[in-house]
Amino acid sequence: MNKIIIGCDHGGLELKNEIITHLNKSGVEAVDVGTYTADSCNYPDYARALCERIQSGEFERGILVCGTGIGMSIAANKHNGIRAACCSDTFSARMTRMHNDANVLCLGGRVVGAGLACDMVDLFVNTEFEGGRHTTRVSMLADIEKDN
Questions:
Q1: Is 86 a catalytic residue?
Q2: What average pLDDT does the segment 135-145 reach?
């Protein structure tokens, strides 16, 4: 993957900027949908801006950062076709790609440090979906969206 979309609210601004620097050094272009200041703002606005661009097919995956990662995860998962996972450890970041085909990684700027976050981002960017029996389960998630 050579391009990913990233966004945050005020609680995730500092970590988002660290992640962008890390991604750029790794050769991955990070397209930033904001926020760009530490002024208080509403995380659902940034989750929507990011998710709509994944839904359109412009991006395959994205990263959202808020204070805990939880609000962004909840907001992102309201969008059809988005499988957002709030992670705070590398095992979860790897497994959510392998088993859930997650397309949005949510992180907490007040929960994880930059080193751990960048390790999780690397795993999220570089780990492929395992498929197989997991394909059926991911399809079941899509069926739930259709039913609701």
A1: no
A2: 94
